[in-house]
Specification:
There is one protein chain. This protein is α/β, with parallel strands linked by helices. It has ten helices and eight strands. α2 links the parallel β5 and β6. The longest helix is centred in the middle third of the chain and has 18 residues. It is globular, with a radius of gyration of 18 Å.
Length: 296
């Protein structure tokens, strides 16, 4: 793996790449509260067959971390990903875009708005906006599991996340999850990537800029309260693989209920004995499913 720096709209973005650039490319988009290191366990299992591209997304790691919420609008996050594709694969679509957690939101955005830039879409424990908003609005188990979103959106949450050597950040990271993969060396790398409150603000601004509405437990939201999500604009036209760690307690299976209504060609692959951090827990197995899906 090697580090590179791209200029996107005049700002520095850090990208980790691995493998032969002449091989089929996979753009790998991380979520919260990770960085390009989200893929460091997976990349060694794919780099012989694919050119792996893992950026630190806006607000994370060594990339540009503006403090204003409006810099994190979905169109700007997707625009960053398009710029990365313009640099590494300007003349042809990449073999796949792989998104995890918030990275899935950007990956879906690429599939909706720039379908010619990717041949396949792969999502690992991430969500399509329509079924996710439906689950968030229902006031049920997903609404309850997602109350942390409102906590993160509150002012000064970044200061609480940075305090006591990132103790609360680790609490969110590890709540009801298997963290046996988090070695002391990896934890040190994550804490370096997180930095102080001024840096973490960019990370939580993804939540503040999001249009998604979260119901209070037991208090469903009405249709009038919800954002307009036109299905014809949010359809996945290319082959789509959804990898799902069955023990995820942050995102529940109801998050993808009805997903096939919004996809031309959906494959669901559940991963037993894995949770939200499946990319770290089962990298060899995940890589096998990706290879099988792409080399078919």
């Amino acid at each position: 793996m090697r580090s590179e720096t791209l200029k996107i709209s005049g700002h520095n973005f850090h990208v980790v790449v691995a493998g032969d650039p002449s091989k089929p490319a996979i753009l790998m988009l991380h979520g919260f509260p990770e960085y390009s290191g989200a893929y460091f366990d997976l990349i060694p299992h794919l780099q012989d067959n694919f050119f792996c591209i893992a950026p630190d997304q806006r607000g994370y790691g060594q990339s540009w971390r503006p403090t204003e919420v409006d810099h994190y609008a979905a169109s700007k996050l997707v625009g960053d990903a398009v710029a990365v594709l313009d640099h590494y694969s300007p003349d042809a679509p990449v073999a796949a875009v792989l998104g995890h957690d918030w990275g899935a939101a950007v990956a879906y955005g690429l599939a909706f708005r720039h379908p010619g830039r990717l041949q396949n879409l792969i999502i690992a424990n991430g969500v399509h906006p329509i079924p996710f908003q439906r689950a968030l609005a229902a006031g049920g188990t997903q609404s309850e599991a997602s109350q942390y979103i409102n906590w993160l959106r509150a002012e000064c949450s970044e200061e609480k996340l940075a305090a006591n050597n990132h103790a609360h950040m680790m609490g969110i990271f590890s709540k009801h999850m298997d963290m046996s993969w988090m070695t002391p060396a990896k934890l040190a790398a994550y804490q370096t990537a997180w930095g102080g409150a001024d840096h973490i603000r960019g990370m939580v601004n993804w939540y503040r800029a999001s249009f998604l509405k979260v119901a209070a437990p037991g208090v469903p939201l009405s249709e009038a309260d919800l954002p307009n999500l036109p299905p014809h604009l949010l359809r996945v036209p290319m082959p789509h693989l959804l990898l799902w760690g069955e023990n995820d307690t942050a995102l529940l299976p109801e998050c993808y209920a009805g997903l096939d209504d919004h996809c031309a060609d959906l494959t669901l692959q559940t991963i037993p004995d894995a949770d939200h951090w499946l990319l770290h827990q089962k990298p060899a197995e995940i890589a096998g499913h990706i290879r099988k899906f792409l080399i078919r």
